[in-house]
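Run CBS domain-containing protein through structure prediction, thanks.
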Amino acid sequence: MHQLNKFMTSNVYTVNETQSVQDAANLMSQYNIGSVPVVNNAGQMVGIITDRDITLRTTAQGEAAQTPISQEMTAQQVVQGTPEMDAHEAAQLMAQHQIRRLPVVENGQVIGMVALGDLAVDNQLNNEAEEALSSISTPSEPQK
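Sure, done. The structure for CBS domain-containing protein is below.
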């Protein structure tokens, strides 16, 4: 079995939901990352903010400095994995939801992040990672 805890990056940077979007963007720039889990004051994951969220929801409107992250993050039904989750299942989940990065959560706390590239380095998972990327790269249809 290929559990996610063998593939995940455990040094995860997070932001608090009350911080500004500019703070999140600065963190992404400093560490060259594309998404940051959002936590509340208790350290529980409440959402995720991506570079795309910032670009489309905030920067285009010129409000990054004063906009709290809680207004721009994805909060409802944040797709997440667990440390014991099978990596094959994680790749399928990422393809289904068209995401490239999956937060790994245990007891509500973010303990890691897995990117498609992390899965692609394993020969047994390479094909699934390629299939997931193919699904992610295909534009989704508008919801009706």
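The helical segments are 21-31, 51-58, 69-72, 87-97, 116-120, 126-137.
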